[in-house]
Amino acid sequence: MNADADVVTLARTLRTEATRANERRVLVLAGGRNRGYDRLESILDALSVPITGTTLVGPEDRLRCEHRRQVNASDLLGTTRAVIAVDVHEGLQPNALGTVTGAVDGGGLLVLLTPSLETWPDRRGAFDESLAVPPFEPDDVTGRFKRRLVETLRAHRGIAIVDLEADRIEADGLTDPAPRLAAAAPTPPTDHRFPAAAYEACLTADQVDAVAAFESLFADDRAVVVDSDRGRGKSSAAGLAAGAFAADGRTVLVTAPAARNVAELFERAGELCERLEGGDATVDTRRIETAAGGSVRYLEPSDAIEDLESADVVIVDEAAALPVATLESLLGADRVAFATTIHGYEGAGRGFSVRFRDRLAESDHEVTDCTLVEPIRYAAGDPVEVWAFRALLLDARPPVDQLVTDATPGTVEYRRLEPEDLLADDRLLREAFGLLVLAHYRTEPNDLARLLDAPNLAARALLHDGHVVSVALLAREGGLPAETRAMMYEGGRVRGNMLPDVLTSQLRDEAASEPVGRRVVRIATHHAARSRGLGSHLLERIRAEYESAVDWLGTGFGATPGLLEFWRENGYRTVHVSTTRNDASGEYSALMLAPTGDDGRALHDRHADWFVRRVAALSSDALDDLAPDVARALLRTVDADAGPPLAVTDHEWRVVAGAAYGPGLFDVDPGPFRDLVVRYLVDDPDTVALTDREERLLVLRALQGHGWETVADRLEYHSTGQCMRALGDAFCPLVDHYGTDAALEVRARFVDE
């Protein structure tokens, strides 16, 4: 055959069919890299696509068009192209594949330049090498993800495959779709409050409904939830609403995981404001100001939480990619909207739809819901979207509630989820991965490849009648050779060994990377079977399996009181807390260990001891903004035997007892007070009876050193004097329990028994 002409003809036919149906098509050029580029250049020369509508994603800028590396593929989010070519000869990043697929417009082509499909799964690229975390080597990484990807390419409609080595078209990708009826133009609601121009800018009836839903935010104590798959125009709808509010003189605060997430929102808002006000609107990429005195401005989530009261309306875009704790804080706004992607190409945890929606329902907000179904960039049922969802498991979800609602620890089976078993059983893979999506606010296509290919990861699950009801992802860490440990100690970073890395590089313990452990990276239980002990049962079975195989089990997570208590109940103890907040979650991270052997016990004991020794100083410095309830829970999850014995001199006891029972003052020497509070919180909480408010007072004033006025205001004392007296009262039972004879002598002078 005339291979070049036939491939060009195929590409033209694919694009013609895609344009007629307003769908997209995939063209796979499989074989030698140079031959693939030769065919691609011929295709681009023959297609009537402007150079500005074409992007090459690959390691080299080999075409006369826009070029992006795979690591920068996220730059294409929120944009569209007629043709995107992806060169994966040197490796494939699943996240990049998802992103570029979403950026192909209706009538467009996604061209994949791949090695031979028979040999591609056995080749290792840069992403595969990133999965070979020490002590593993690249040869230990498998090719299961690419094997599955190749199978989906061959199985799905709308995907043409050209075998460049054999000079043949393996599949033409043509679907011969039926003609579609033209959609009716959307019309605004009859009683709308936003300007008609906001609705005239909508492209679908779904978008009209979404913009109308935002009108409910004219009233107090309201919340709006707009959700959709990507490409349905939810961000555009949010932008039109933001612009309409600003044109009405309202201040709109917009936040999202990153500024790039709101580019489309600001573009639509700016267009509307300029249309409504002409040259009187000031439009920038992160701030819009109108002649009516309104504005739209972007802030990072942590800054937005601090500035909620300054805005009339708060809009949270890509809400599913934010942690539940951050979303809860944003609920402090009186009028707030959450726009969220259900199945995101860049990862969208279902923590929003499952966990946060419960918090929202319990709030004082009246909620208006809106779901956008109709695609804007391409027609419904687009075969490329169907393929991408399956290939990257973007729509993976746990089993339906009815299948696991009766699950209990007594009805479930513990199972090792071996990667080959997951590859052979698509339902099992979808259920397990769907639950892992639940376990974290951001689960990405890269995580699917890690689950199938990474040699350091293992998955364990509880199955009820064959369905996944609880799942955990475990990472092997530690067991590193002496030269690697020395490199870490001297400042080098080692991938995939989070706990040993922190304990070695930050806490200066070169021996911390020698014992072997398993870190629980994620754990999740189906929401229909929670509060039955299934998560604890899974951890118990994991411990039984690994007890003789590793030195320790561990975990690290954004610290909240509930999570800390869960891990404490399962035998894990805190050994460290980060000194900076996670940029995305806004939380401090806790590291916890559960020793399973002598070396693990020694590792735990010395780090728990060091933590108790430094925590008082940390509390008044780097952790002075740690929530009191988190601080209490952290110290309660430290081993009670950790740290030095309480060392308070007789003189210091007289100062403490004098402040508790007499006219003494805390301010003259806070040191012994802090030591006493740390020992009390680390010890068995039943030894001394204090109220939650009293413990918060001890944390805020004694440990964190906040001023009297600040503490009195936060804990709602009537005055600083009342707050001072309350602190003294809180120390009385501590003096009674821990005090030496010197302290009790002071007590006796002021207490009439």
Automatic annotation (TrEMBL):
Binding-site residues for ATP, renumbered to this chain: 207, 377
- Which reaction is catalysed here? a cytidine in RNA + acetyl-CoA + ATP + H2O = an N(4)-acetylcytidine in RNA + ADP + phosphate + CoA + H(+); a cytidine in mRNA + acetyl-CoA + ATP + H2O = an N(4)-acetylcytidine in mRNA + ADP + phosphate + CoA + H(+); cytidine(34) in elongator tRNA(Met) + acetyl-CoA + ATP + H2O = N(4)-acetylcytidine(34) in elongator tRNA(Met) + ADP + phosphate + CoA + H(+); a cytidine in tRNA + acetyl-CoA + ATP + H2O = an N(4)-acetylcytidine in tRNA + ADP + phosphate + CoA + H(+)
Q: Which UniProt keywords apply?
A: Acyltransferase, ATP-binding, Cytoplasm, Nucleotide-binding, RNA-binding, Transferase, tRNA processing, tRNA-binding
Q: So where does acetyl-CoA get bound?
A: 523-525
Q: Which GO terms describe its molecular function?
A: 18S rRNA cytidine N-acetyltransferase activity; ATP binding; tRNA binding; tRNA cytidine N4-acetyltransferase activity
Single GO BP term: rRNA acetylation involved in maturation of SSU-rRNA
Q: Where in the cell is it found?
A: Cytoplasm
Check the record and name the PANTHER family matching this protein: N-ACETYLTRANSFERASE 10, RNA CYTIDINE ACETYLTRANSFERASE
Q: What does this protein do?
A: Catalyzes the formation of N(4)-acetylcytidine (ac(4)C) at the wobble position of tRNA(Met), by using acetyl-CoA as an acetyl donor and ATP (or GTP).
**NCBIfam families hit by this protein:** RNAactase_tcmA_Halo
Descriptive protein name = tRNA(Met) cytidine acetyltransferase TmcA
Q: Which gene encodes it?
A: tmcA
